[in-house]
Every structure is written in structure tokens, then in C-alpha cells.
Design brief:
This protein is of the alpha+beta class and about 130 residues long. The chain is about 30% helix and about 25% strand. It has a 5-stranded mixed sheet with strand order 2-1-3-4-5. The structure holds tetrahydrodeoxyuridine (THU).
């Protein structure tokens, strides 16, 4: 699959997001090293703090299926500029991904920003710090 197809998977997820409170859909496509894709959406709750972001939904789906090796993440939002992942999701990326893993951030009208896990979260706290 191409990066364009991964972006399409993340953008398609926007329509599935469960966002009755914020009306701010986010979609994700997490790609494993062997090329499988896991789609994620944000899932909100009337108890707002229980909300799960799209990125973490994708990671938790994949990790709970036994996946541990990832090669790419795409995150999409209906935002004028490419969406910026929250801090909690950056820490989850750091748990499961190489610091150099590419992360593609997508906004409306085809805006794209290419980052890496380490670029999003410098001086990362990992198992090496324990
Ligand atoms: N959200 C995500 O899904 N991912 C992020 O990285 C940023 C925030 C969601 C959480 C909530 O449902 C909505 O966006 C507004 O904060």
C-alpha cells in the first residue's frame, strides 16, 4: 500500500469518529512493519475525561491483536493546518515506535506535515529511563 492509501484510511475514519461533544473528529491509520493497517477514531464520553483519541484507539486495537512492530502513522483532522497530536498520544507513540518512525499529519485541503516520533516528542521518556 502507498502513503496515499494510508492517508485515505485516516481521512475515511473521520466519518466514523464518535464526537457528539466536541464535534472535532480525528482519524488515524497505524501501519505495521508487515504492512497491515489499523484505523483509529476518537471516541468521546459524557464523562469527558474518558475520551480516547484516534491515535490511541489505533494503537490499542493493534497492540491488543498482538502487533508490536510499526512503520508509519497517519493522523487526520478537519483542521486548516495539519493536526497536532496531543501529548498523551505522543507518549504512546514513543512506547511502541522507533524514534525515527515517520508520522504524517493531515489537515483539510490536502495539507500535510511530515514528522517523526522523536520530532513530536524530543527527549523522550522510555523504558531505558527506568
Ligand atoms: N483528539 C484526538 O483524537 N487526537 C489528538 O491527538 C488530539 C485530540 C480528540 C480528542 C477529542 O475527542 C477531540 O479531539 C477534541 O479534543
Amino acid at each position: 500500500m502507498s502513503k496515499k492509501e494510508w492517508i485515505d484510511i485516516a481521512v475515511d475514519a473521520l466519518d466514523k469518529a464518535y464526537v457528539p461533544y466536541s464535534k472535532f473528529p480525528v482519524g488515524a491509520c497505524l501501519v505495521t512493519k508487515d504492512g497491515k493497517t489499523y484505523q483509529g477514531i476518537n471516541i468521546e464520553n459524557a464523562s469527558f475525561g474518558l475520551t480516547n483519541c484516534a491515535e490511541r484507539t489505533a494503537f490499542f486495537k493493534a497492540v491488543s491483536e498482538g502487533e508490536r512492530e510499526f512503520s508509519h502513522l497517519v493522523v487526520a483532522g478537519h483542521t486548516p493546518e495539519p493536526i497536532s497530536p496531543c501529548g498523551a498520544c505522543r507518549q504512546v507513540m514513543a512506547e511502541f515506535c522507533d524514534p525515527a518512525m515517520p508520522v504524517t499529519l493531515v489537515g483539510d485541503n490536502g495539507t500535510v506535515k511530515e514528522m517523526t516520533v522523536e520530532g513530536l516528542l524530543p527527549y523522550i521518556f522510555t523504558d531505558k529511563d527506568l
